[in-house]
Design goal:
Length: 497
């Protein structure tokens, strides 16, 4: 928020940066902060307190615009502050060592500079990617070369036949100067690695104008977000700091540039990076979420329409699932408080002690405080949500909420059917314990229904191997615990003070 007062801005950032420090991976996590000159000096000061001066890596100035935005002084750059998790960590892609650089040369005088020969095979096996198992014709011997012709490796090629043909056209496939190699090698250029170290000035990471044009291409309309960042900026950041398979979190995600950049980079190198984006403004629905959907479909857009379908490689390397979660706001919580007695509404006129008493007892059936009686129908639990000037009833995900409160690392989510009955079962772990959580509608059930319930769970082995079993409502399931008391206690843990 550029119009916050300095003290308010610092207070807001302090809370978030202390949380970010805990979230960073303990081994080699890094934090990159993009901001303009309005608060950069104060940010450096408070980050020295939060992270410690010794964890500061550097300040990058990146050229964000080519325009003259002030009559007396043109502010054409933004700042990117880099911090490490601990003193011992480094930015992992801060450059090649001298020993690593020896692998780079230019035996065919390629105008793109030094390169190193890389394996053309991917990490996938034939069983996982059968479409990437095909023959490549040796340009000299005309022999058909498969991924395993001269190797015992079960892996397949790293790209589709069409992409391989394009790589050949682009002079990216190397068979040796005299075509003496039995297998092809993929050129990997030193310039694409990011250089030897992190440069303090970036004038090649894209501009805000590039980012605005990209949004116009995606949505087909004019300015829909005031200060977008180019995906190429975030891609460059990730090249220095994030390996394949890691998680990138952006808790001021704005227009969704970070998610866009992760998708681009995964498509480029076949990585398995994941992103978590957090946003509280209306941009989430109008820009961020539609943008991620569009980019997932295909990378190239013009006037709000796709220019072409995604290639096979691009489609395979695109996200399969993008999950988004809406958290109940403070205002929504207040809107959903309902007192048992109408006179209880006067609680807000009294002191804190009395208000806590009223919230604990007189409003105990409020949906926002978890009305446990309604968990007999867990898939129909609703809250009153105010949006766009109207209040509407909306379904909320009670099973998902319970998983978060329980701290469950979910491995599987499966739906089972017993006739007209639907069972939702989550399996996962908490520390070393294997947990099963079973949800089903039990409204109106009699003893015979619970007997049938027990037989179905046993027959389907829904609790097999579980150290603990949680189930909503009553049950005859062996060793199962009712989850309602744990659910409500977890929601209000820490509120007694």
């Amino acid at each position: 928020k550029d119009n916050y007062r300095h003290s308010s801005w610092l207070s807001m950032m302090n809370d978030r940066m202390r949380t970010a420090q805990r979230l960073l991976s303990s081994g080699n996590g890094t934090l990159w902060i993009n901001l303009d000159d309005n608060e950069v000096h104060r940010a450096v000061q408070f980050m020295s307190v939060v992270f410690g001066e010794e964890t500061f890596v550097g300040n990058i100035a990146w050229k964000k615009t080519t325009g003259d935005n002030k009559p007396d002084f043109a502010f054409t750059h933004d700042n990117v502050l880099i911090y490490k998790k601990t003193v011992d960590t480094i930015c992992r892609r801060a450059g090649l060592t001298k020993e690593q650089r020896k692998a780079y040369s230019n035996p065919d005088n390629d105008p793109r500079g030094d390169w190193a020969p890389g394996d053309c095979r991917s990490k996938w096996t034939k069983a996982e990617r059968p479409n990437l198992y095909y023959a490549i014709v040796h340009p000299k011997t005309k022999e058909k070369i498969y991924p395993d012709t001269y190797s015992d490796s079960p892996r397949v090629w790293g790209c589709s036949p069409e992409t391989h043909d394009e790589n050949v056209t682009q002079n990216l496939v190397w068979w040796g100067n005299d075509l003496e190699l039995k297998e092809p090698k993929k050129k990997r250029f030193l310039k694409d690695h990011g250089g030897v170290n992190i440069r303090s000035v970036w004038d090649d990471a894209g501009t805000n104008e590039d980012a605005s044009q990209l949004l116009r291409d995606l949505f087909g309309i004019g300015k829909i977000y005031p200060t977008p960042k180019p995906p190429t900026l975030v891609e460059k950041v990730m090249r220095y700091s994030v390996d394949s398979g890691e998680i990138i979190i952006d808790f001021f995600s704005g227009s969704g540039t970070t998610g866009h950049a992760v998708i681009n980079l995964n498509r480029e190198d076949g990585g398995r990076r994941k992103f978590i984006l957090v946003e509280m403004a209306d941009y989430f629905d109008t820009v961020l979420l539609p943008r991620i959907k569009k980019v997932t479909f295909t990378p190239e857009w013009k006037d709000g329409k796709p220019k072409r379908p995604a290639t096979r490689d691009e489609a395979e390397r695109s996200p399969r699932i993008v999950k988004y979660i809406r958290l109940e706001s403070y205002e929504d919580a207040l809107n959903n408080i309902a007192f048992d007695d109408a006179s209880g509404q006067k609680a807000i006129q009294f002191d804190d002690y009395f208000l806590k008493y009223m919230l604990k007892w007189e409003s105990r059936a409020s949906e926002t405080l978890l009305n446990v009686e309604k968990l007999v129908l867990p898939f129909q639990y609703k809250l009153h949500i105010h949006a766009d000037g109207q209040t509407r009833e909306k379904l909320v995900d009670i099973p998902e909420t319970f998983n978060y409160l329980l701290g469950l690392h979910v491995r599987t989510r499966r739906v089972y059917k017993d006739g007209e009955r639907r069972y939702l079962v989550h399996r996962g772990r908490i520390d070393h314990r294997d947990i099963a959580v079973i949800w089903r509608d039990t409204d109106g059930w009699q003893k015979s229904d619970f007997e049938r319930d027990k037989k179905f769970v046993t027959k389907q082995k829904l609790t097999e191997g579980a150290d603990e079993v949680f189930v909503n409502g009553d049950s005859l399931i062996p060793n199962a615990r009712a989850l309602e008391p744990i659910f409500k206690a977890s929601m209000f843990a820490g509120m007694e003070g």
